[in-house]
Amino acid sequence: MQSYFVPLLDVPYFLLVQHAPAPLAGALLGLLHGLAFLPAAWIAWRALASDPRRHWLAPLLGLAGLTSQRGIPVRAGQHHG
Question: According to the model, what pLDDT value does residue 23 have?
Fold first, then answer.
């Protein structure tokens, strides 16, 4: 469990939303979060080195890594509905 973050981590976000128009701030934040796809797809590409399907499977796994639920433990026999 994360209990403490340095408050200075919020300074760039604060400055962006205070000084940029809302659509621009939203686009920049979306771009920043979208860049996480690249390392996720690269890791999948490397993990599938010998798989002939990796040219289409690696990007899908990278996308799945960005859209998966985080912070929800799933145990054997446990269903979330």
Answer: 95
Sorted by sequence, the CB contacts under 8 Å of residue 48 that are 6+ apart come out as: 54, 57, 58, 61
- The structural domains of the chain, with segments of one domain joined by +, span 7-65
Q: What is the 3-state secondary structure (H, E, C) of the chain?
A: CCCCCCHHHHHHHHHHHHHCCHHHHHHHHHHHHHCCHHHHHHHHHHHCCCCCCHHHHHHHHHHHHHHCCCCCCCCCCCCCC
Instruction: Record the tokens describing residue 18, joined without a space.
Output: 């205070």
Alpha-carbon distance 68 to 40, whole Å? 12
pTM over 0.85: no
Helix axes 11-19, 22-34, angle to 10 degrees: 140
